[in-house]
Amino acid sequence: MPQGRVVGIFVKRAHGGKMDSQPTAALEADHGLIGNADVGGRRQVTLLSQERWNELMATLGISLDPLARRANIILSGIELDNSRGRTLLIGRCRLRVGGETRPCELMEKAAAGLQSAMRERWGGGAFAEVLEGGQIAVGDVAFWE
After folding, report:
1. Superfamily, domain 4-144
2. Can you point out the beta strands (E) in the chain?
3. Over the stretch 101-117, which tens digit does the pLDDT of each residue have?
4. Quick one: which of 25, 84, 92, 125 has the most CB atoms within 10 Å?
């Protein structure tokens, strides 16, 4: 079974606020990332593929840290394209992908052309609901159920 890894975890202090990198974090079922400003609803956690981000950077000839995307969990080795309805396991946590995270105007402010480029093949990543919570850490294995 193909698997990936968590390569980054970021918590947003406030709506539109700074993203803080963390080596570990807690996910709560039906809530999201503990301490994150955006919790509850269908968009409890946002996910980004490191490889897809790297493709976007190469296409645009720029170099931005994935932190610029403002996603909560950066994954390597996990393809998010068309993953709606799939369940991702990270450690003991289970997350169900609800859909694609559409890029906003902040991506255009980060780099000209980025917002448009991210609209292809789920370049903005995905959002998910936490079905089963627990601790996650950078380096944790991630795979599709």
Report:
1. PK beta-barrel domain-like (2.40.33.20)
2. 4-12, 19-21, 24-28, 32-33, 45-49, 73-76, 87-90, 93-100, 126-132, 134-137, 141-144
3. 998 888 888 899 999 99
4. 125
